[in-house]
């Protein structure tokens, strides 16, 4: 069992397969020219399996594969099939552009829940956000997943003045479609030009939805990052991830492993622990895992509090989102 000093049990591991992506979303990837990590410095398939098995032996019950975009990695199918044999719940977060190529692999690995990042329902705005003309491919793949009975969650990063006017368009999507929309408050990472006036808080999100729809709160699971809601008569539902305005750190059970084998005990932790180098030297990395989690701060990596209105993003020490893993 992996615990921190605040008695939080950590049984959920998020593994980034790559820092590469076929989209170029500004809030995730630095605006400057970006050099992707060389393949030799990434965890290899066998190393991902070895590290994952060690975490499972220490009590991990859920593994999420992330990126960058995990499905652009050449050996993604092999990794998915390998981890699918572990006694854990295996899930994935993707931009949705390549899901049609991996449908059989996902099914054989018993992945039933897929999170898809989609910040707009407007093709022209999708092009503006991602700098790629792949909106219709993503929408087609969402329909494909639903046809094959996958549980689909849509992650929408809400940015004030950019896509906050689409919130109720996303809610309307749930009327007849059994998807969950997850509205995510805009978070600061290296290079993403975050400012506090771009944050559209949970209270504002709920106020906007309440102007058009009547909704009810739904009790979530013990370690949920999202506050859940349902709209009577709707086939789908929605949730809000309120990292900036109402952090959920007290029940956090998450650990993050970057594509280059660094363990982060918090999304906002300034420090990280190299697991890949000692693994390649034949050293026991289990003590490093426990030591890293024991050093976890009480809240938000110890770098800021929940008062985002006063936050100076330039003072936060962290990677860019794409190098951490979504």
Description of the structure:
- The longest helix has 13 residues, at 45-57.
- The mean pLDDT is 90.
- The chain is an alpha/beta fold and 326 residues long.
- The protein has a single domain, classed as Alpha-Beta Barrel (TIM Barrel).
- It is built from ten helices and twelve strands.
- It has helices at 45-57, 76-83, 99-108, 123-130, 135-147, 167-173, 202-210, 276-280, 286-294, 321-324; strands spanning 12-16, 62-66, 89-94, 113-117, 151-158, 180-185, 216-218, 226-230, 237-241, 254-257, 262-264, 273-274.
What labels would you give this structure?
globular, single chain, TIM Barrel, 326 residues, 12-stranded mixed beta sheet, alpha/beta
Fold topology:
Blueprint lengths: L11 E5 L28 H13 L4 E5 L9 H8 L5 E6 L4 H10 L4 E5 L5 H8 L4 H13 L3 E8 L8 H7 L6 E6 L16 H9 L5 E3 L7 E5 L6 E5 L12 E4 L4 E3 L8 E2 L1 H5 L5 H9 L26 H4 L2
Parallel strand pairs: 1-2, 1-10, 2-3, 3-4, 4-5, 5-6, 6-9
Antiparallel strand pairs: 7-8, 8-9, 10-11, 11-12
Number of domains: 1
Apparent shape: globular
How would you classify the helix and strand content by structural class? alpha/beta
SS field, number of helical segments: 10
Instruction: Enter the CATH topology name.
Output: TIM Barrel
Strand order in the sheet with the most strands: 7-8-9-6-5-4-3-2-1-10-11-12
Record field, number of beta strands: 12
CATH architecture, please?
Alpha-Beta Barrel
CATH class category: Alpha Beta
Largest sheet: 12 strands, mixed
Helical amount: 25-40%
- The proportion of strand residues reads 15-25%
Give the full name of the CATH homologous superfamily.
Answer: Aldolase class I
Mean pLDDT: 90
**Gyration radius from CA atoms, angstroms:** 19 Å
């Amino acid at each position: 069992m992996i615990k921190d000093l605040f008695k939080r049990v950590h049984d959920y591991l998020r593994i980034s397969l790559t820092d590469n992506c076929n989209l170029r979303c500004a809030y995730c990837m630095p605006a400057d020219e970006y050099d992707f990590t060389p393949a030799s410095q990434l965890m290899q398939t066998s190393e991902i399996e070895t590290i994952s098995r060690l975490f499972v032996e220490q009590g991990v019950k859920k593994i999420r594969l992330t990126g960058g975009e995990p499905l652009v990695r050449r050996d993604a199918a092999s990794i998915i099939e390998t981890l699918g044999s572990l006694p854990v719940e295996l899930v994935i977060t993707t931009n949705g552009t390549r899901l049609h190529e991996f449908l059989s692999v996902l099914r054989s690995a018993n992945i039933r829940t897929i999170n898809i990042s989609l910040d707009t329902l407007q093709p022209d705005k999708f092009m503006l956000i991602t700098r790629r003309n792949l909106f219709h491919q993503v929408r087609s793949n969402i329909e494909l997943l639903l046809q094959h009975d996958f549980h689909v969650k849509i992650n929408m990063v809400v940015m004030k003045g950019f896509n906050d006017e689409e919130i109720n368009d996303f809610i309307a999507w749930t009327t007849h479609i059994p998807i969950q929309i997850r509205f995510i408050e805009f978070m600061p990472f290296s290079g993403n030009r975050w400012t506090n006036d771009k944050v559209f808080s949970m209270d504002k999100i709920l106020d906007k939805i309440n102007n058009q729809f009547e909704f009810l709160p739904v009790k979530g699971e013990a370690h949920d990052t999202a506050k859940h809601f349902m709209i009577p008569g709707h086939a789908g539902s929605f949730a809000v991830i309120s990292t900036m305005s109402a952090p959920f750190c007290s029940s956090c059970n998450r650990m993050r492993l970057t594509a280059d084998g660094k363990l982060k005990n918090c999304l906002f932790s300034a420090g990280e622990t190299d697991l890949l180098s000692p693994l390649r030297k034949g050293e026991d990395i289990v003590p490093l895992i426990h030591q890293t989690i024991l050093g976890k701060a009480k809240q938000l990596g110890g770098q800021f509090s929940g008062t985002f209105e006063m936050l100076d993003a330039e003072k936060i020490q962290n990677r860019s989102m794409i190098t951490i893993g979504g």
